[in-house]
Amino acid sequence: MLHRRVADLMTTAVVRVRPDTGFRDIAVQLAEHDVTAVPVVDDQDHPIGIVSEADLLRTQQSQSDPSGHLTDEHPPPTESAKAHALTAEGLMTSPVIAARPQWSVVEAARAMAHHDVKRLPVVDEADRLVGIISRADLIRVFLRRDVTIYEEITTEVLTRTLGLDPASITVQVTDGRVTLTGVVPHRSLIPIAVRLCGSVDGVVDVTNRLTADADDTGGTPQR
Number of helices and strands (H, E) in the chain? Predict the structure, then answer.
């Protein structure tokens, strides 16, 4: 089974800035390249931080409301310092949570969720910036055509990996939702088949309607 890795989905033409890049120049880079964040890199092209639109907006949030409708807020000292920063070094969020090109989609998604970030710089073995991957990039996995998912399940999972006769199992794929119906030789194969089908890129859910000729698990016979 072939799973797409971070290297397959990441953007390689990464817009980046230096620690001394000014506020306005960062805003220009975001606008010109239609991105919402840029990595900050050092002289060796190692990412040391991220500056996002949210970081730039802190400056506006810290200003007084010209209409007088809102009272002035008093953010924590660290937030206040960012709100008055003039360069990427002061604006950026650090340290950087980075991904590796060989990571699976699952690894990248879990890292984003665990650290509550929307994107991950991707670094090579020398920790140099080679790409960036976002939530939108990961979602592309779920845009795979149903027929492609069907072919991978029947050919790669059922036939090559599990050695099953595809004629004995009916596979239905609708909008990424897979339904397995049919008979397998041994009951112990059922959870394995369900798990492997669920790990296929683009699968949203697996409905199991499989039965078995023989129970090799010590439970109640399936048939």
Answer: 9, 7
With contact defined as beta carbons under 8 Å apart, do 38 and 30 qualify?
Answer: yes
Q: Are 119 and 9 in contact (CB under 8 A)?
A: no
How far, CA to CA in Å, does 109 sit from each of 15, 99, 115, 135?
A: 22, 10, 10, 8
Q: Report the number of distinct structural domains present in the chain.
A: 2
| 163 Cβ neighbours under 8 A, 6+ residues apart | none
Range of the domain at 93: 6-141
SS3 of 30-80: the string is HHHCCCCEEEEECCCCCEEEEEEHHHHHHHHHCCCCCCCCCCCCCCCHHHH
pTM value is 0.72
pLDDT tens-digit series, residues 57-74:
887 655 555 555 555 555
| The pLDDT of residue 78 is above 80 | no
Of 141, 159, 180, the last residue of a domain is 141
For 47-58, the pLDDT digits (tens) are 999 999 999 988
Same domain, 112 and 151: no
In a domain, 1, yes or no: no
CA separation for the pair 17, 211 (Å, rounded): 57
- Listed residue (169, 146, 145) closest to 157, CA to CA: 169
Residue 191 parent element (H or E)? helix 189-198
